Amino acid sequence: MNTLDDNSLKAAVYIVGAGPGDPELLTLKAWKLLQTADVIVYADSLVPQQILKAVRVDAERVPTANKTLEEILPLMIARVRQGKSVIRLHSGDPSLYSAIHEQIQRLAEAEIEVEIVPGISAYQDAAAKLKIELTVPEQVQSIILTRMSGRATAVPETEELASLAAHRASLCLYLSARHVGTAQQKLMEHYPPQTPVAICYRLGWPDEKIRVVPLEKMAITTEQEQLIRTTLYVISPALGLSQENANRRSGLYHPEHSHLFRNK
User: What are the tens digits of pLDDT across the range 146-200?
Assistant: First the structure.
């Protein structure tokens, strides 16, 4: 398949990451696919209408917020068997919290070809808008992407939030706003109460809000401002670096550092 040089797509399912909500953060490949595909099956509760501006006027659009997997899969399989190209459009990046595993398995059983197109994740958009690097030399070098257990998805005991917080890494907490009180309590077992937290609400949507507050005010701010749906929390030492710490630099571009492409 050559999605960039021609206007035809083979009959298959393309699982495409829509990014956090801003159409300008779609990858070029995602944009080209949206302009070309016959059918768009999208999570309308998570993908804003502005993303669909790229879609062909005559393409079939199927919102899935009120549908189960047992309703979505037969539809996609039927369209592909009719010779149509189908985009399964997910918010963010499909590799994170998108429930594509079971879709891929069932499509494989039906002998339907699948291609996955990655997208920008909310944590990347958040870091860009906060103008921070989440891996600052000598301060933090790890990023943890996690969530609280919910009704639909349980988190393994080995990944319990308090145990992950013990690392004091840059921690990006997805899908947890409705459990924010419990999350704050678990985080404060290891992060100081004044640790800055970025509450990122509906990134890339027209009503986007970003609030940076101390960890001890994470829950009350969320509740008072009703920042419940599609909210990401970024808890990171990088948010609160002093100028002295911020001036610490990586050895990569230091004049005293040599490597394969640059000798001292």
Answer: 999 877 778 999 999 999 999 999 999 999 999 999 999 999 999 999 999 999 9
Contacting residues for 70 by C-beta, under 8 A, at least 6 apart = none
Region for 202 from its dihedrals, namely left if φ exceeds 0, alpha if ψ lies in -120 to 50, beta otherwise: left
Question: What pLDDT, on the 0 to 100 scale, is given for residue 150?
Answer: 76
Q: Is the pLDDT of residue 4 over 60?
A: no
| Helical ranges in the chain per DSSP H | 28-36, 69-81, 100-109, 122-130, 161-165, 180-187, 218-224, 243-246
- How remote is the C-alpha of 171 from its chain's centroid? 13
Please name the helix (run of DSSP H) or strand (run of DSSP E) that holds residue 233, with its range, or none. strand 231-235
Domains and CATH numbers, the chain: 13-117 (3.40.1010.10), 122-246 (3.30.950.10)
Assess contact for 9 and 36: CB atoms under 8 A.
Answer: yes
